[in-house]
Amino acid sequence: MQWTDEHRMLRETMRRFVAEVINPYVDEWEEAGAFPAHEVFKRAGKLGLLGLNKPEAYGGAGLDYSYTVAAAEELGTAACGGVPLALGVQTDMATPALARFGSDALRSEFLTPAISGEQVACIGVSEPQAGSDVAGIKTFARSDGDDYVISGSKMWITNGLQADWMCALVNTSDGNPHGNKSLVIIPMNEKGIERTRKLNKLGMRSSDTAEVFFDEVRIPKRFRIGQEGAGFMYQMMQFQEERLWGAANMIKFLENAVTATAEQTRQREAFGKPILANQVVHFRLAELSTEIELLRSLVYRATEEYIGGANVTRLASMAKLKAGRLAREVADSCLQYWGGMGFMWESSISRLFRDGRLASIGGGADEIMLGIICKLDGLIPKRKKK
């Protein structure tokens, strides 16, 4: 990956944004269980951080995906995972399909304010009985003239209590579960929408997460993204950017954990010497740094191929899998070296321990990533015909 002066300027802008707009308030937002999304997103929008690879006609910068990866990596300097996750939903989970396949009118109405930060978006795929099993969703949009009438529910919706609209995957017909779905935009102020309690999560506590119910919610069919029945395909394409973004965002989050642990163990002494002086400790931190660097290389390679027009489902799945596994490994190893302080709720390493755990679940669980990799590498034996 060749980084230009423009990339470096973007990185500096994102670092300043994190240092000035996010980190001073993280403890307050973690305690509250939410952050002021509209306020933060507007400030990000004014800096041009919400539409880096989106079309210029709708307020985006029209840059290639390497700029999004660079920004996601620097966003990992945030002192929590919740706020970066909420921003990632806006930029790389709820809007890629809209930007690529939405009509001009639909993009003007919903993508433009998402890029400016005037509106907050959320993505509605998971349901109480269908998380990683995307084909198993039950929410149905029945046809009624020029409208869809939607009933069902969506679960674990990041930004769900504050969002102005949802990019939702719904069934628009019966039949083949891979060909009966559509992506639609649902304004969250429509009659029949109920946002339930703020979900009480293990981690990502600064980000609000909700369950959303739809009871005969009527939207015009013009709010559909692209072709009817193509929603599953669009969502699979959308997952490529979501997974790459998530892996990139994890890099500096993990690097900072190793750096903080080195400093903590340099200052903390036991048996007359710093904890860091023990070979088992500094060797382990060196191993973790090497693993993080390998994750960075994988993300950069996948990004280069994606920019070149390749299907990077395999590499993005590998990066997502590695990021989730490494988040658990780094958090567990580093917390151990913090001793009792690491077990305290307010310590930065315990926050990483909680926040990082989602990386192996959200956006497709580790087992889904492994299944994708096995399928693409021909590792699943074909069943013998009886």
Question: How would you describe the overall organization of this protein?
Answer:
This protein is an alpha+beta fold. It is built from twelve helices and ten strands. It has helices at 5-22, 26-32, 37-46, 65-75, 82-92, 96-101, 104-116, 231-267, 279-307, 313-338, 348-355, 366-376, and strands at 121-124, 140-144, 147-158, 165-171, 181-187, 193-198, 209-220, 224-225, 269-270, 273-274. Strands 1-4-5-8 form a four-stranded mixed β-sheet. A hairpin with a 2-residue loop joins strand 9 (269-270) and strand 10 (273-274).
Describe, in short, the structure shown.
The protein is α+β, with helices and mostly antiparallel strands. It has helices at residues 5-22, 26-32, 37-46, 65-75, 82-92, 96-101, 104-116, 231-267, 279-307, 313-338, 348-355, 366-376; strands at residues 121-124, 140-144, 147-158, 165-171, 181-187, 193-198, 209-220, 224-225, 269-270, 273-274. It has 3 domains: 5-120, Acyl-CoA dehydrogenase/oxidase, N-terminal domain (Butyryl-Coa Dehydrogenase, subunit A, domain 1, Orthogonal Bundle); 122-227, Butyryl-CoA Dehydrogenase, subunit A, domain 2; 233-376, Butyryl-CoA Dehydrogenase, subunit A, domain 3.
Number of helices: 12
CATH class value of the largest domain: Mainly Alpha
CATH architecture classification name of the largest domain:
Up-down Bundle
- Provide the spatial order of strands within the biggest beta sheet: 1-4-5-8
Average residue pLDDT? 96
Q: How much of the sequence is in beta strands? A: 15-25%
- Element order: H for helix, E for strand: HHHHHHHEEEEEEEEHEEHHHH
Amino-to-carboxy terminus distance: 50 Å
- Unreliable residue stretches: none
Structural shape: globular
Which superfamily, in CATH terms, is the homologous superfamily of the largest domain?
A: Butyryl-CoA Dehydrogenase, subunit A, domain 3
Main β sheet profile: 4 strands, mixed
Our count of domains comes out at: 3
CA-based gyration radius: 21 Å
